[in-house]
Specification:
single chain, about 280 residues, Rossmann fold, six-stranded antiparallel sheet, alpha+beta, Pdz3 Domain
Length: about 280
């Protein structure tokens, strides 16, 4: 699966444990596909992509790449233009097992490396990472604000009173935010220096100022205003619904939509699901 495919607004299904539910077992997410990788942390530089880290035993290390190398060419293309950097990511993701040629500057020397991407399993969070990594590699400043738009329970009568239901919704909002904030605080992207996650308190302040209501839908106008006031280039909208199953268990379904503020387009859309045992 490749970065450009992941830009589709198609809902992608995967199983993922959601923190904050006391009755939920800790489940291991199932892979949703695979892609190629070379085992190197790349970040944008003025003339190409800088290698910040090389994983021992992976393709880049075996070929001889080292931390500090500057990738200036790939398959005969100059890596200075942002579109060329994104093409590199595309090919690495899609051409698993195929020989690819990299031109690297190391000190005063120009080196050539030929290496083949190896298989890496993809998980649902990789959908979000891939889109954000595409943007980060252009060199533009990328920041993400998390907005929980809806928390819903299809059987509210399961709670003893409205206060209990309200407390559950508040707890789930916190869990949703905390989990996805931890997911987005990807160490590799953060090391590039042009990626950030908007502070939770700042986002909350903006939502309060806009009198934002949890309705499950957000207008393009509100999206632009949220982006402007938080300074975010992207907004991650989250909505969760808990369904009661015939067996007495529950299923939590979380929809995550990553929206580019400038265009209002959905850059990625992912569904997380988890089944909770009956109490």
């Amino acid at each position: 699966m490749a970065t450009r495919i992941l830009r589709s607004s198609t809902i992608l299904a995967a199983a993922l444990a959601l923190s904050g539910c006391a009755s939920a077992p800790v489940e291991r997410q199932q892979p949703m596909g695979h892609a190629g990788h070379i085992g190197a942390l790349l970040c944008p530089a003025e003339d190409g992509l800088r290698v910040l880290q090389v994983s021992p035993g992976q393709s880049a290390a075996r070929a001889g790449m080292k931390e500090g190398d500057l990738i200036t060419g790939f398959q005969g293309q100059d890596m200075a233009p942002p579109a060329s950097r994104q093409a590199l990511l595309w090919d690495v993701h899609n051409k698993e097992g195929q020989a690819l040629e990299f031109t690297v500057k190391r000190g005063g020397s120009t080196l050539k490396f030929t290496l083949a991407p190896t298989r890496k399993e993809l998980y649902s969070e990789d959908v979000l990472y891939s889109v954000l990594r595409d943007e980060v590699m252009t060199g533009r400043k990328v920041s993400v604000a998390i907005v929980v738009t809806l928390v819903n329970h299809t059987t509210p009568e399961a709670f003893k009173n409205a206060e209990a239901l309200s407390a559950w919704k508040a707890g789930m909002r916190d869990s949703l935010f905390n989990f996805h904030e931890g997911m987005l605080l990807n160490k590799g992207l953060l090391r590039c220096g042009n990626y950030a996650v908007v502070d939770r308190d700042k986002t909350k302040q903006v939502l309060d100022e806009l009198h934002f209501q949890m309705s499950g839908t957000v207008s393009p106008e509100t999206t632009k205003e949220l982006g402007k006031m938080t300074g975010a280039s992207h907004l991650l909208f989250l909505s969760l619904t808990r369904y009661r199953q015939a067996s007495g268990s529950y299923q939590d379904v979380t929809n995550a939509r990553l929206v580019a503020v400038e265009t209002g387009n959905v850059a990625a859309s992912v569904r997380f699901q988890q089944t909770l045992s009956a109490r």
